[in-house]
Specification:
The chain folds into two domains: 1-69, 3-Layer(aba) Sandwich (Glutaredoxin), CATH 3.40.30; 80-211, Glutathione S-transferase Yfyf (Class Pi), Chain A, domain 2 (Up-down Bundle). It is 57% helix and 3% strand. The chain has eleven helices and two strands. The chain has helices at residues 2-5, 20-26, 59-69, 80-100, 104-107, 111-125, 129-136, 139-159, 171-186, 188-195, 200-207, and strands at 47-49, 55-57. Strand 1 and strand 2 (55-57) form a beta hairpin.
Amino acid sequence: MILNFKQIPYTTSWIEYPDLAPQLSSLGIPPNDRSAPDYKTDYAIPTITMPDGTHMMDSWPIAHKLEEIHPSPSLRLDDPIVLKVRDQIANIMKPLTGFVIPKVPKRVLNERSAVYFNETRKERFGMSLVEVEETMATGEKWEEARVPVLEAVGWLEESGGPYFLGETVSYADFIFVGMMHMIKRLDEDVFQRFLAYDPALPKLYDACKPWLEKDD
């Protein structure tokens, strides 16, 4: 969404999950810090190649680098709402895990990546994704997610909407809408149910549609 918002030309290259680590390491990209509290894997996507040939991994540093070299239009990265929304995503997605993650290998991955995803997530969760869905896609978890979702909605309402900064779009909007768009691609029914948490959510999503038109 950032590249679309800033009108930066780009092409997308898709890499199968098992090939991520060898391909990214071959580019000289250092692995993620295994001592970091949010560490999950050595290599992850998105990864971007800059015009000067350098490579960066992870959305957060990529956003800051793009803002540095393409400052206009601004992502408003210095506004406190950006960090608030970024950190709130984990609070929302944790209870929604059972509704979302098991759909990934079935809906968006090729067979080779699907096998890898199923195996690695079984290690992470201590159960298969079938079991994750059976045990975690519950009404109780859906209601648990309502609390952080409505807290974020409160921030939208405080600003007057449709964006987290009122009439001014920021990276906070792209973070939140990126999450919603992922849910939509995985399961339209879950997406519609998510929008039903509050009318402010479809308003935010619709307001950001211009930057979702190219979503590859």
